[in-house]
Every structure is written in structure tokens, then in C-alpha cells.
Amino acid sequence: MTTYDDTEANGMNERGALLDFPGADELATAGHVEPLSERALARVLAEVEAAVATEGTTVGVATVTPIRRLTGRRRALIGLLTTAAVATGVVTYANNGTTSAGTGTGTHSEARANTASVFLDDISTVAASQSASSGKYWKTRTTVGTAYISQSMDYYVVNGGKAYRKGLRPDWQVGPKDLDWKGLEQLTTDSGKLLGLLQSPPRPKSISPFDQAVTLLTDSPASPKLRAGVFKAMGGLKGVKLLGQVKDSTGRGGTAVEFAEARSLGQVIVDPKTSAILEYTFTWTAGPSKGKVTHQTFLSTGFTDKIG
Amino acid sequence: MKPDAPDEPGNRRRGGLRRRRDSDPRGTTAEHGHDGEHADSNAQLTRSAHGDSVAFTHLVKAHSSALYGYFARRVPAASEDLLAETWLQAFAARRTFDPARGSARGWLFGVAHNVLAQYLRRAGRREPAPGPDVTDPWQVVDQRLDAAAMAPALRRALAELPADERELLLLISWEQLTPTEAAAVVGIPAGTARSRLHRARGRLRDRLTMPRATGPAGPAGRNLTATGDLA
Asked: For residue A209, how many other CB atoms are within 10 A of its CB?
């Protein structure tokens, strides 16, 4: 039986009959709301998939896989499930069916933040498992061009097949530190210490901690260990949110993470299989530059020994 | 809006229900369409309880729009969070769904109803004023009706309905649930829900119906008299 078997003896739909009063249409019209956005739906799907992944992990896997022994299959699973998440907050929901509020363990927003944190933790393990390499230059190829940074911080762009030196690249900012190539090699890879640096009180003209972190992950010769530490540290930033599975402007699939501050919004799309940053969008949401958007789509990044 | 999601109430044309009744007196066309969707959702929820996680994802896609509307009409500021919480609770409790006891849609709205009640209780606890838990979102709903420039008489009549009758009425008007589904949502027998809904309709007719006009051009349909033909 379905509930739509409900009809009155005169054949009229019962629901219609019960709504047969003056003003019923007006009441229905007053119930109009904007439809659910695609972005909100993606966020919900990501959280549900995290819950599914959690249950699969807790039920089907008896042991914890050591970080360094992550298999390609496990990494693929991480990618498939969007969030690669085993979320602490979500475990609460998945295991006993009650909300975190009901158990007094936190709010749903906290659970969502935990989901982002767990996703970034897992991405950290993917980053750590990448092989280390080296070279004379760090090459960044985006949809708008290719740039190189030398070990002495010279900055080159390629235009029409020819390389042009554009001066010195500013040092990378990590909280209170300004680091050049060598400084970056000596930077701690401990995620807790990195988080502490990123959360240091801002200096004049300093960029947001999320922005600092993403710059290290894309536009710097950070080692796999350092990238792993940075991803994990990002998960500790208050306000970081998992948005879910998205496609970047070139159609590549990835997982989006967002970080909102008082004056800016950063959104990054990560390839969960490789930990590569696919796209980064930074928007000023307040202040004199309000509305200004910086958008970078990364096609490839890595070491090279020659320009061009 | 997703193509497989129920229509938003406000997207229907005014008088649409009446027109459908004129052209399709039994309303069977729409009902059969819903029937197929219901069977699909029931099967998907049942399959997800047996480990088919893809089936659950289909449910999320099919019903999120309607569930979001439920929250957006009652607690707009928290609607996305409550929607996510609903799905997480539904996933955790999916094995308790029994298609013999009602539709997946009614069951999902029941989960949403509980999530909303939990949220309102928490919100009530944060208020300094003592007293019973606040679980009726009428104030927000009334603001919505006010913003929609609804006739003051109708707003007043709705405000004067007992909360349980009003809730059922909104479930069938805004969420487009059947009386049986609405009963499952609030956890009462279907017969009790029907009685309350009939009472609510009677009260609204009493309060809102103009005196019977004389002559053939008098009001009909939505403007039934208090001693109308459906009582």
C-alpha cells in the first residue's frame, strides 16, 4: 500500500479536500522558498559519504593501516569517497544515530569542521607518500602561463617561448617568518608547530593563514614532508570547512575546502589521489579590495633543472 | 530544483489544485507519478539498510530539496545545517525503516521533524526565560506569512489553530505530504491526524468564509460556506 491510496469516497484526493478552505492557495504560495543550491547539496553529499565511509571503516576494517603503507587502492577509495574522511564528529552520528548536540559532544558545525580536518589529515598522508625530488627551479604551470623560481629566488615567466626574469620573488610567509628557498628547507614539518606559526598574530600586510598555506602547497618547493605538515596544519585552522566534491574550471574532479575570515574567503580544490592543488580562489569579502577575486588553476607544479 | 524533487508549493500556480481537480477529478495522473517515486524511494531506503550505500546517495539527491524546504520555511538561518544533520541521522537509523508502515518520504520527514524539535529545544534552552521547551516554530512561520503579505484574517485564523492541527496542515500544504505521511511525521495514528485536519479545515472555513452569496454567481470551490459540501 502506498500513502497515495488515501482518497475519499467521492474520489477526490484527500489532501486536496483537506486543503479546500479559503486562502489555501495563498498559504501554499507563502511557503515558497529558494531551491537548495548545488553547492549546499554537494556539501550534504560529502558529509553523507563521509558517514558511509566511516561506517565501512568501522565495520569492515579491524586494523589501522600505517600511514606509509597506504595502498593505491586505499588512496583511490579516498578519492572516490570525496572526503576520504573518517570524521570524528560524524562517527558520533553514524554509531548511535544521535546528534552531537544530543550527546553533548559538540555542534553540527563542529562536526563539519571535524570532517574538513579529517579530510585534510588524510590528504596529509597522501602528500607524505609522494616521492621527494629536487631541481634547480620550481616550475608552476597554470592556465595563464608558466613561471619558474630559482634557488636564489629569481622569478621567471615564459612568454612566447622565451623566458623573462621578473626580479626576485618575495619570500614565503609562514606566520612571523619570511623564508627563502633555503629557509623553506629548514622549516619545521611538524604540523602542530606549523599551525602555531600560521596562527601567529598577523603582521601588517600579512596574508591570511590559509593563503600562506596554499601558497606553500602550490608555489614553493616544499618537500612531501612539509606539504604533509601544512595540510594537517590547515585542518587545525578554525573556520576551515569541507565543501565536497567539485570540478575545477578545466573539468577535473577534486574536493573543495573553504576558509572564511573576517575580510576574505579562500577556496581550494585538492586532488585527493595525489594531494595536488588543482585550483585556488581567493576573494576579498570586506575592506577596500572587497569583491576582488584572484583565481589560479594549476596544471602542474614540480622541480626542473632548466627553464623552458 | 531537481527534476525528481517534489514541486515547491510556491511554484504551483494559484488555484492549480482546483484546476487539476477539474480536469482530472480523481487526481490519478499526479498520484501515479508520485507512486512510482515512492516505490523507488522505499526500495532505495530498504536497499541502503542492507548495505547499498549508492542507494542512499540517490535518496539524498531525490529528497534533499523537499527536506531543505521544510527547514527553510521554519528555521531559515539553520536550514542547511539541519538538512545535513537530518541525513546523518537518517543514515544512522536507516535500518529502522519499515516500508510496510509508511513511505520513505514520510519516514525522512519524521527524521527531519525530530531534528527540528531537537534544534528548537536547544535554542529554547539558550533563552534565559524559564518555561517549557519551545518546539513550535510558529513565530518564524508567522513572520513568513507576514512577509508574503498574507491576508491578516488568514494569518489570525492560522495563529488561533491549535499547534498540533496547524503543524499537520502545514505538512500537507507546504511539504505536500499525504495525511498518512503527516501522521507518521508527528508520530500519531493516521486516523487521529485525519480528525485533526478535518477539524482544522472546519475552523478555517468558519473563520474565513464569507456569508453565502445569493444567486448562481456566488462563491464556489475555495470559497465554500461553513456548512460546505465536504464536511
From this structure: 28
Partners of residue B216 on adjacent β-strands: none
Across the interface, whether the CB atoms of B10 and A32 are under 8 A apart is answered: yes
Residue B145 to residue B166: CA distance in whole angstroms? 13
Q: Are A33 and B8 a contacting pair at CB < 8 A? A: yes
B107 vs A: CB within 8 A: no
Determine the CATH number of domain B17-135.
Answer: 1.10.1740.10
State pLDDT tens for residues A194-247.
Answer: 999 998 887 776 778 999 999 999 999 999 999 999 999 999 998 898 888 888
Asked if B9 and A29 come within 8 Å (Cβ–Cβ), the reply is yes
Question: Domain locations in chain B?
Answer: 17-135, 136-210+224-231
- Architecture of the domain made up of B136-210+224-231: Orthogonal Bundle (1.10)
Interface of A with B in 109-138 (CB under 8 A): 109, 111-112
What is the ipTM metric for this complex?
Answer: 0.72
Up-side HSE of residue A282: CA atoms within 13 Å toward CB? 14
pLDDT digits (tens, 9 = 90+) for B82-132: 898 899 888 888 888 888 888 999 999 999 998 888 888 766 544 443 433
Nearest of A148, A124, A185, A167 to residue A301 by alpha carbon? A148
Q: Given pLDDT bands bounded at 50, 70 and 90, which one contains residue A276?
A: very high
pTM: 0.47
What would you measure as the largest C-alpha separation in chain A, in angstroms? 87
Residue closest to A31 by CA, chosen among B222, B12, B86, B63: B12
Question: What residue of B is the nearest CA neighbor of A12?
Answer: B26
Q: Does A178 touch chain B (CB under 8 A)?
A: no
Of A20, A26, A94, the CB nearest to B91: A94
Residue B194 has pLDDT above 90, yes or no: yes
Residue A174 three-state SS:
strand
